[in-house]
Amino acid sequence: MNFDWNTFFLELLNFFILLWILRRFLYRPVLEVIEARRKKIDDQLRGAEAARREAQAAKERYERQLKEWEMEKAGARAVLEKEIAAERERLLADVTQEVAEERAKRRARDERERQEWARMTEQRALELGGRFVARLLERLASPELERRLVSVALADFPNLPESEADKLRAVLADDPLEVSSAFALDEEQRAALAEAMAKLARQSVSPIFKEDSALLAGLRIHAGPWVLGANLFDELKFFRDIDAQGIS
Length: 248
Description:
248 residues, 5 helices
């Protein structure tokens, strides 16, 4: 086989022409497309990086806000727990005070009821005792008992306070001296009473003697507002008053 240089050079020329055509009409557009694609990818990568950085920043902001919210929530919970504890203490103090006041009221009510019961019991006892004593002494009223009461009065005259004697002397100037008795007094008793009253008044007296069966037994001596009682009626007056009042 013989080598043909003309064909070789023509083929080589065709090859270079083909390369020029490929470079001009195919390679350059491909390079431009590739460059455009690369730029687009770079832009996308830059956008993605910016988005990543923005997302990271947003994540950090969210985590920071979440941490701040947790701190605020913890603070609010602490304040709420403190307020709840304070309110519980206040309510407990109020309940304790109410219980103490209720106990005090109950004790006061119990004390009033106890005192009222004691008063009623005492009044009832006085009423019953008064009735018994009144009935007993009314049955014992007699001239013999009156003589004993007159003797007691005569024995007590010297022991009367000086103020009573002064009052008697003051009223004797305007009022007569009256001696009332449940039973008639004999001359000896009248004389003894007149003598005792004269010593007490430090002046001569002329008593007016009267009989008053309401006295039951004993004496009532008076001159104006001055009164000296030594009789069953006056002694039983306290019991009669209680009996008349009754139990409230």
